[in-house]
Design goal:
The longest helix has 22 residues. The N and C termini lie far apart (about 40 Å). The protein has a single domain, classed as START domain (Alpha-D-Glucose-1,6-Bisphosphate, Chain A, domain 4). It has a 7-stranded antiparallel sheet with strand order 1-7-6-5-4-3-2. Helix content is about 25%, strand content about 40%. The radius of gyration is 15 Å and the shape is globular.
Length: about 150
């Protein structure tokens, strides 16, 4: 099956704690993620690990992720376990307070046959990065507003 391997990043001038506070607040992602992602939290019991959310980009085929591990103020690891993809995603924060690199990396297998076929015609990693650049820019906007 085709793969999606992509990494998108942004450099932010803020504190690690400020970025971390936003990244661990999965129930409020829909307030700063683009509407086109159509994000819905499926499971959240107050703990980050085990939190599940579903995305239906452009109202199309969906995928579901679960937070499977955290390294506080450094990394959040997600498992894509249902829908069109299988694999992992990582939020990472690197740097020192003042100048941080925040990145999101995916290593996914496309398991949906129609999306796998579509990947022969268009670059799914490029499409993923296009959306994630907007997510990262929205993260920066959210930080500057708070």
């Amino acid at each position: 099956m085709p793969q999606i391997k992509a990494q998108d990043e942004i450099v932010l001038r803020t504190s690690i704690e400020e970025v971390w506070k936003i990244l661990i607040d999965v129930p409020n992602y829909n307030k700063w993620w683009p509407k086109v992602v159509n994000l819905k939290v499926l499971k959240f019991d107050g703990e980050l690990i085990g939190t599940e959310f579903k995305a239906s980009p452009l109202g199309g085929k969906s995928f579901t992720c679960r937070v499977i591990s955290i390294n506080p103020n450094k990394e959040i690891k997600l498992n894509y376990f249902d829908g069109i993809y299988r694999g992992t995603g990582y939020w990472k924060i690197e740097g020192k307070d003042g100048i941080l690199k925040v990145s999101y990396t995916v290593d996914l297998e496309i398991v949906d046959k129609s999306i796998a076929f579509l990947s022969r015609l268009i670059s799914i990693p490029r499409f993923h990065s296009m959306i994630f650049k907007k997510i990262l820019n929205n993260l920066e906007s959210k930080i500057t507003k708070e």
